Structure formats: structure tokens, C-alpha cells
Amino acid sequence: xxxxxxxxxxxxxVLAGAMAAHAEPVVRAPAGPVRGVAxxxxxxxxxxxxxxxxxxxxRWRPPVAVPAWHGVRDASAFGPACMQPQSPPSSxxxxxxxMSEDCLSLNIWAPANAKNAPVFLWIHGGSLMRxxxxxxxxxxxxxxxxxxxxxxxxxxxxVFGYFAHPALSAESPEGISGNYGILDQIAALGWVKRNIGAxxxxxGNVTIAGESAGGLAxxxxxxxxxxxxxxxxxxxxxxxxMNIPELKRPAFGLPAGEAAGGFIAxxxxxxxxxxxxxxxxxxxxxxxxxxxxxxxxxxxxxxQLVETFDRGEQARVPLLTGxxxxxxxxxRPLLPGVPDPASFDAATYEAAIRENYGELAEDFLRYYPASxxxxxxxxxxxxxxxxxxxxxxxxxxARIGQPAWLYFFDHGYPASDEAGIHGFHxxxxxxxxxxxxxxxxxxxxxxxxxxxxxxxNAMVDYWASFARIGVPKAPGQPVxxxxxxxxxxxxxxxxxxxxxxxxxxxxxxxxxxxxxxRAAGIAWNWNVxxxxxxxxxxxxxxx
Length: 543
What we know:
Blueprint: H1 2-21, E1 26-29, E2 32-35, E3 37-39, E4 42-49, E5 73-74, E6 81-82, E7 99-100, E8 105-111, E9 117-123, H2 141-144, E10 149-153, H3 158-161, H4 166-171, H5 180-195, E11 201-211, H6 213-223, E12 233-237, H7 257-265, H8 270-275, H9 278-287, H10 305-311, E13 319-324, H11 346-357, H12 361-367, H13 373-399, E14 404-409, H14 414-418, H15 429-433, H16 450-469, E15 488-492, E16 496-500, H17 504-520
Parallel strand pairs: 2-5, 6-7, 9-10, 9-11, 11-12, 12-13, 13-14, 14-15
Antiparallel strand pairs: 1-2, 3-4, 4-8, 8-10, 15-16
Helix pairs in contact: 11-12, 13-17
């Protein structure tokens, strides 16, 4: 009997240990207690509100903090995505979400034993129009296994997050409107600063990261004085230092933000606009062809982004940034000036480039020749938008004494290469999150091979290390030098590889073009190559 009792006691102890390992974790944060789930050594909390739902009278106002709650809040499921138009069903990025205007929530993946752990805060992409933190590809579990806490957030999108209007500016104590999506992101960072310690995180060691429009959001936070002190370093993936509207006056070929908002409203009062439901607002924005963009308002964003970096007024933090070789291959509808191959030959292409680029035309044709017009259009658009930005950023951070690391993602696999989209826009995401088995339904499937997993593991290690210590390192992988040293960068192809001097001539060409356009008050977004305006003459700093 004693032996039986001994076996029973051991069994009970094992059962108790197993139950404890899978017990629902409860964290008593300053915002209020939350109950998450335990899984594989991690505590996961989803759908935690960081601001009140911006509905009704709170629509198009700065975010308001949620009053502290006292009962334990369930945090086992993602909150709804923010309101957004439906994605094109044929897009590889298309995902279906439940949506609500009451959407300002965040999610946390934390090691179960986290103590003073570094924090990695992710901002999703989607053209500032679509997307959600609940997308399976953004699951933070693998990154959290590297000893960091991962946070992902929702923020207002489209016309809900970036709508400026004279009446909104008039009701604002600061006389500004728009940029509500940026203010949401800043509010989420404030919530993390006040609460992440309860989850085992270090509020003084926060890395902000994002890709595409999420990378653009990181540029907004780097440029905004209101985000100072809320993060320690930044990761910018496939973003652009594009020109953006100014609130009160037309600039660089764009109408004033307030004027664009007035056009969308079509004479409706704020009360009438706020009385519309979410789908009604989306329909109104679609009718008016609303394009979501941040706005230079003098407060949240004091200047054009590139001007802030020129002035050295961006956040003084270490930076990791880069872009992909095939950025434009999945964004062909956005390509400017695509000719009809049947009626457009090499001579016509060269003549158009010479007319548009003047004395810089020979340089342009050297890098983007007429021998393959289709490929040249793809490369020129990529370089004028994404490559120029990434290389500009590492130079600008070095200029203010901050280390910066540059990467070039040039990896393909059978499904992506068969589709003709090698190194496509966002292709690095499942690799750096460690979620190559959790992509969107139409995403070219990444094969479960040792080579793909090895590349993913290396990228997860580099990204997690940067969040942890501010230097990207990966065991058993090449040392990644900062760009400050010999213009070094990392190529992610079949495996990581270090090189130097990424596209130096192309960068100088596009920098000169942007400089001249800025001086002449001309836009510098997608108008590259065949769609370029006549190049202004060199003057002043652009000589």
C-alpha cells in the first residue's frame, strides 16, 4: 500500500505541475488585471485596449486612455481589426478580419519567466488603409522565445485615421487635424511605457518595428517630437521618405490636407459625418478616392519627413533598415508609365528618359537600360522609392552619431520564383517572424525545408538581438557590420552574406533627383522613369 500511495503522490505532483504550466496567467498591470493564456513556455495576452474606441463623438479626435478597470479582463482573443475597405480578393496580401471602430487594442507575447526583458513593438503594414495585428504571420511566439517581449498593435486606418478637415482643426485646441493613426501609435507606446513592467518588460528598452506602411509609421515616430523617449531603437522595413500633404497649404503637387478632407465631406457637417456608420464612411472615402497619408501639421509632424532627417531632428536611436529585390513585382498596378510593348521600343524609351532626366539621363540609362524595359521600370521604381529611402536613412542616422544597419532581401523559393515575384514586397516577414508556415491564403507557399528554416532562424536571431542589445547578431552566422563601417550591408539570399556598397550609383542618382525636385516644389513619390516630370536644373545644395 505504501508503494501505491507513493505512486499516487508522484502522479498528483506531475498532474499539479502540468496544470500549473498550463494555468491561465493573470497579470495585474496599472491599467487593470488581465488574464491570458499559457503556451509552450510563454504567456500570451490578446486584445488589451490601450485607448477608448474612437466612435461617435470620439471619431476623428486624439485617442483617450481607457480608465483603469478592477475586474480581471479576459485577454485570450484578438480584438477586432480597425475599419477598412475590403482587400482585392486576388491579392496575395488579402486577409479577412472582423472589424469595428472600437479597435484600439494590443497583444503581448512574453516569456513566462520574463524579467526586465527587452520589448519589440510591431506596427503592421497595409498602405495605412488595411491590415491588423491579428494576422497569423505576425505571431510573436518565435521571437519571444529569444527572450524578448513582442507587442503588436491596431491603429486607426484610412479615412478614420488620416482625415483632416477645417472644422476638425477648428475644434482642436491645437488647431490641427489628421494624423489620428500616428497619435494612436504614440498612445500605444505610452501604454507600454506605463504597463509593460507588469508583464516582465523593460519600458526603457523598446524597439519599434514595421514594414511597408508599418515602416512608414516608424518614420513618422522617428520624426515626431511627441514620440520622444518612448522607444530606444527602430527597425524600418521597405518604407519611403515620400512627400506628404501639408495641413493648410498645397505643397509638392499635393492639395492641402484640409482641402482634401473638405472634398471628401462634400459639404456635410462634422455632426453629419459622425452620424454615419463605419461602412458609410468607407463608402464616402471610396467615392472621393481618399488616399490615407500622414500630414505635416507643425505639431505631430513638424516638417516633411526628409526635411526632418536633413535637419538632424529625428530620434537619435540605432536603426536597422532595408528593402527587397522584387519590391514592385506584386505592386504592378501602382507602376507609373507602363508602356504598351507593341508600340514602345528601345529608342522611344531612351528618348523619353532623355527628355525627363536631362543631363542625368545617361546615368539613368546605365542603371535602367532599354535592353529590358520591363525590368528597368521595376528596378527604377524600386530604387527611387524603397532603395533610396533605406540608404538615405542609414546615412542620416550615421550623421547624427547613431549606428545603423542596412539589409537587402534577395531570397526566392520555388513558389515565388515560379510566380515571377522573387524577393517580393513583404517576402521577408514570415522569415523574420519565424512564421513561414502561417502566411496569407494566396501567399506563395514557403517550403518546409532545412534551408528555409535556417534562413528564418538566422533572421529571427538578428532581429531579436537588435531588440535586445541594439546590435544584430546571430549564432553561427556572419557578423553584420554597421553601415557606418565601409558602407557594409547584409544580403539575405539563400543564406546571410555581408557585402559593401549597395547600388552606390543608383543612390546618388535618385538623391540628386529628389534634391532638385524638392528645391523646385515637385513631388518625389512614384513619379520615376517614364512618369518623371522634366528634371529641374541644379541649384544651391543640389549642385
